[in-house]
Design a protein that fits this description.
Chains A, B, C, D: InterPro entries: Homeodomain-like_sf, HTH-type_TetR-like_transc_reg, HTH_TetR, Tet_transcr_reg_TetR-rel_C_sf, TetR_C. The structure is a homotetramer of 180-residue chains. Chain A has 180 residues and is mostly helical. Chain A is built from 9 helices and no strands. Chain A binds a DNA duplex (31 and 31 nucleotides) through helix 2 and helix 3.
DNA sequence: GAGTAATCGAGACGGTACGTCGTGTCTTGAT
DNA sequence: ATCAAGACACGACGTACCGTCTCGATTACTC
C-alpha cells in the first residue's frame, strides 16, 4: 500500500533535503510542501529518517547508467566520472551528501541501499573485463569500487575540493596499474 | 578567551555525540552534563555545529601516529589499519562518523580540519618512500591517501561491513601494485 | 431505525463515560469497545454529545422508584436518600455527574430528559400528601423538589462532601418545617 | 511567581470558556488570544483544567457582595437573587455553568473554591440572624445555603427554566417557614 | 583590599517541530 | 446498493530544544 500522494511526498522530501540539509528537513515541511497532512506522513513512515530512506530508494536522482565502452578502463573512468558529476552538481550533490550525513547515524536509512546495492549493477563491468582477459578472475570488484568511489567521496565531499578534469582517469589508472 | 569550564563542555559534547549521534546532541544536554548554564555555551559558540567543531579540533580522539616501519607498504598498511580501528571501534567510531555527518552539511565545521589536514602529517610517509626509491617522485600522495582512506570509509561506514583482517593489506596492495 | 448493535453501543458509551469521564469518552473508543465501526456511529448520531444523550435516555441507570411510605415526610426522605445513593455510588454517580457536565454545555443533550422530567413521576408523592391533608394544595411541588434535589447536588457533587447518615432527613425537615 | 502576562491569560481563558464552553476552550486558543506562547502556559499550569481553576479563583466575575438588609429574610433573598443573576446573565452565566461542567469531572478544578468557600462569607448573614434572635443557634447555615443555592442551580441550569420574579423570595420563604 | 570588568547561573520567554490522538468526512472494495 | 474498513484533512495535544533576553551573583584582574 501507499499513500495517495506518495509521488508528491517523496518529491517534497528530496527537494527540502537538498535545500536545507537533513536538519532542515522536517516532516511538517514535507507535509505542507506536498499538500498532505502531517498525520498522513506518520501513517506511512515512522520517522523522518524512514521517510527519507523511502524517498531515496524510489528516487532515480542518484542513478547512473552502467557504461559499456569496450574496455575496463573506459568503463571505470565513465563510472567514476558519472559519480563525480553526481557528487558535485546539484541537485544530486545536495541529496547525496545530505543522504550520506543522514544515513551515517540512522540505521533505518540503510546506506547499503544507496551505496552498496549499486555494486550489483557495476559488477557486470568486471565480468566483462574478466571475459575479455583484462582482469584476473580473482580480482575483488568490491575492493576496486570501494577504492574508486571512496576516493571520489573523500576528494569531493570530505576535502571539499573540485574534481579536476582528469581525476577520474588518474584514480582508475592508480588502481589498475598501481602507483609504484 | 575561553569559558572557565571549556574542558568539561568539550568532553560532554563528544560524549553525547558518541552516545546519541548528532541529532541527539543538544546544547541543553551539553549544558546539563557539563554543569554549565545553557547561556554560557551560547555565549561562546553560536550553534551546536560550531560547538562540535571546536570540540573536535581540540580532541585528540581522532589522532593516530604516523608509523615508520621501514617500507612504504608497511607504513601504509599501518596507517590504514589505524584508520580502520578508528572507524570501527568506539568511541572513535561514533565520533568520527557523527563528525562526518555533521561536517557534511555544516560548512562551519570545516571538514578539512578533520580529514584533509591530516595529509600534512601523512606526507612524510611518501617522502620517505621516494627517498628510498620505492615510489616515483611524481606520485600524488593525496590520490593514494584518498583511495585508501576512501575505501575504508566506504567499506566500514557506508556499506556497514566489518573490515576483514586483511582488508588494509589488500587495499594497499591494490593501490601500490595495481589490480590488473 | 436503529443500528444493529445499538445495545452494545449504548453500553459501551455509558461504561466509558463512567470510567473516564466526559472528556475521556470518545467515539473512537465507543466504536472499538462495542465492536462497531466508527462510521456506523456517525451514521446514526451526529456527535459524541448526541450519542451520549441517546444512551442516557435509554439507560435505566438513573431511575429510582417513587416510594409510598404513607407519609409525605417518609416519601420525601426516601426519594432524597435514593438520589443521594445515586449521586454517591458508582456507577450511577459517575454517569450522573458526567451527564450533568455534558448536558450543561450541550443543549442537544437536553438536561430536561434526565432531571426535569422526573418531576412528573415525583408529583404523585405530593398529590398523595395533599389528599392526606399533609400539605396545602397551593404548595409548589417543583419548588420543594428543586430545594431538596439541589441540596443533594450541591452537597455531594459541588462541595464533594459525603452525605451524612441523616442529611436527607434534615433537608426534608428544613423544607417541611422551616428552619426559623 | 507568576507569568508576566497572567492577567491577559486569565482574561482570555474566561472569555473563551464563556464563548465556547469547556470543550471549546483550548490552551492553544488561550495562548493566541492572550498573546503568549503555548509553552508559557504549560510552564505555569499543567493542564487546561488547572489553568481554568487558577483563572476562576482569581476572577471576580463570580463574586457578589454579602448583603446586610437588617433581616435574615432580606439578606437571604438578596443573596439568592444575586446568585440568580449570576446564573442567568452573561458572562457570569456562561462562566459559572461551564466552570461547573468542568469542575464536575476535574478534581484539580476543586469545585469547593467556587461554591463551598463562598460559605465562609455567607456565614455572617447567619451569625447576625442568630444574634438578632431570628434563628436558633443550632441552625446549620450550610444546609440552608445548600437548599437555596441548589434550588437556583436546579431551576436555572438543570431545568433551564427562567427564574421568575419571585422565585428567590419563595424559595427563602419555604426554607425559613417550611411548606407544610 | 577595593573597585571594576568579565563571566556566570538561573530561568522566563517566543518559537518551531515533534509525534500522537481524536474528530468528522470521504472513498473504496467486497458482498 | 449497502456498508465495513480505513485513508484523509484538520485541530489540538503536551513535550523538547532552540536561541534570546533579562537579571543578580561570582569571579578575578587592576590599581
Amino acid at each position: 500500500m501507499a499513500p495517495r500522494k506518495q509521488r508528491e511526498i517523496f518529491a517534497a522530501t528530496l527537494r527540502l533535503l537538498a535545500d536545507k540539509g537533513y536538519d532542515g528537513l522536517t516532516v511538517e515541511g514535507v507535509a505542507e510542501t506536498s499538500g498532505v497532512n502531517k498525520t498522513t506522513i506518520y501513517r506511512w513512515w515512522p520517522s523522518k529518517a524512514a521517510l527519507l530512506a523511502a524517498a531515496l530508494v524510489e528516487a532515480d536522482m542518484l542513478d547512473f547508467d552502467v557504461p559499456d565502452t569496450g574496455s575496463l578502463r573506459g568503463d571505470l573512468v565513465a563510472l567514476v566520472e558519472a559519480l563525480g558529476v553526481l557528487l558535485t552538481e546539484p541537485p544530486g550533490r545536495d541529496v547525496a551528501v545530505a543522504a550520506l550525513g543522514a544515513a551515517v547515524h540512522h540505521p533505518e536509512i540503510d546506506a547499503r541501499r544507496f551505496f552498496a546495492d549499486r555494486l550489483a549493477r557495476e559488477r557486470v563491468v568486471f565480468e566483462r573485463a574478466v571475459r575479455r582477459g583484462e582482469l584476473p578472475e580473482s580480482t575483488d570488484p568490491m575492493l576496486v569500487m570501494d577504492l574508486l568511489a571512496g576516493a571520489m567521496w573523500t576528494r569531493a565531499v570530505f576535502r571539499g575540493l573540485p574534481l579536476g578534469k582528469d581525476f577520474a582517469a588518474e584514480a582508475v589508472a592508480a588502481v589498475l596499474d598501481g602507483v609504484s
